[in-house]
Amino acid sequence: MVDAHLSQASYDQFGRRIEYLRISVTDRCNFRCIYCMPEHGLDWIPRDELLTDDEIVRVVEQFAPVGLRRLRITGGEPTIRPGLPALIRRLRAVDGIEDISLSTNGVRLPELAVALREAGLDRVNISADSLLPDRIAAMARRRLPFHPIDAARTAYASGLAPIKLNVVLIRGVNDDEIEAFARLTLREPWHVRFIELMPVGELGATGLERVVPSDEVLARIAALGVLTPDVGPSRGNGPASYYRLDGAAGTIGVITPMTHTYCGSCNRVRLTADGRLRTCLYGDHEVALRPALRAGMDLLPLYREALAGKPREHDLIHVRVGGLRALSQVGG
Question: CB of 227 within 8 A of CB of 245?
Fold first, then answer.
């Protein structure tokens, strides 16, 4: 257990300092990506069960004094929540919060990027699973008039930085674009991150066959030029390991939930759109905050309870045989 002198900050039962909260502001999305959500959607959370802006702010206000420093706004697709800039402005005003980022598919960035930056958003991660318009539409199972590179350029021009492009690799679907994505970093000061497919939902039965291991990704990219580890500020708050091609403006990252676990350094918990505090993306341990929120109760005892039950490491096998139906249910 954690020593008493550490009690002013938030530590879990294994001594990991928890300072990063991912906040899902909606379970809905304008995409139906094949690795994230069923094609016909889900049973959406009723609106009266979604946390309000006031409730989200109260969670952050209560957790910040015990060590919460970094927030990531997620969904579903967070930019479809009405009034998102106003919510970010309020979260930015919470004493102790040092960094706010956003995970998005980028569709609404052209209209929202300036407002989000002015509200206090620091940076964005953009899902970019292909550079080919027809393939983007096929993977998202929606045809919308946008391109992730255009979204990235808009965000960068608005002052949101660093820009991170998240590429979920699926063998036989988009793994032929690894080199094209890597070449982007030669000219753009962005950070392209290749994410190993997680066997959830529709891909649960066949997901392992579709995983492209990070070692294979890096070997293919190394054929383009000298590739060395990068330990600069691109690292951010998450689990990616970063590399840089010689002379490149940006970096290449790999996120490896399947082949190289990173649980030992996990510093995060997740708040679902309906107010459950989830301590592991791939597990099922969670504590309900919404009843206490709506009763005006102190949330810190529930926070301590959640951290005391945070598992040492994830169990993707459990997820594969019947856990999550969709990553969108827990904020990805």
Answer: yes
Tell me the CATH number at 22. 3.20.20.70
Of the listed ranges 126-135, 178-187, 242-251, 312-321, the one predicted with least confidence: 312-321
Expressed in angstroms, the distance from the first to the final Cα of the chain is: 29
Nearest to 304 by CA among 8, 10, 68, 3: 10
* Residue predicted with more confidence, 203 or 232: 232
288, with CB counted inside 10 A (0-12, 13-18, 19+), is middle
* Token pair of 302 as six digits: 């529930």
Q: What phi and psi, each to the nearest 5 degrees, are found at residue 216?
A: -65, -40
H or E segment to which residue 270 belongs: strand 268-271
What domain count does the chain have?
A: 1
Interval 224-241: pLDDT, tens: 999 999 977 655 556 789
Is the pLDDT at 259 greater than 50? The verdict is yes
Can you give the pLDDT at residue 42?
A: 75
Local confidence band at 322 (pLDDT 50, 70, 90 cut-offs): very low
Pick the closest to residue 23 from 211, 275, 214 (CA basis): 275
Can you give the residue range of the structural domain that contains 202? 4-330
CA atoms within 13 A on the CB side of 231: 0
Which phi and psi (to 5°) does residue 107 adopt? Answer: -60, -40
Q: What is the residue type of 209?
A: E
- Beta-strand pair 70-74/286-288: unpaired
Q: Report how far residue 27's alpha carbon sits from residue 43's, in angstroms, rounded to the nearest whole number.
A: 10
Q: Which helix (H) or strand (E) holds 61?
A: helix 53-63
Give the per-residue pLDDT at 9. Answer: 66
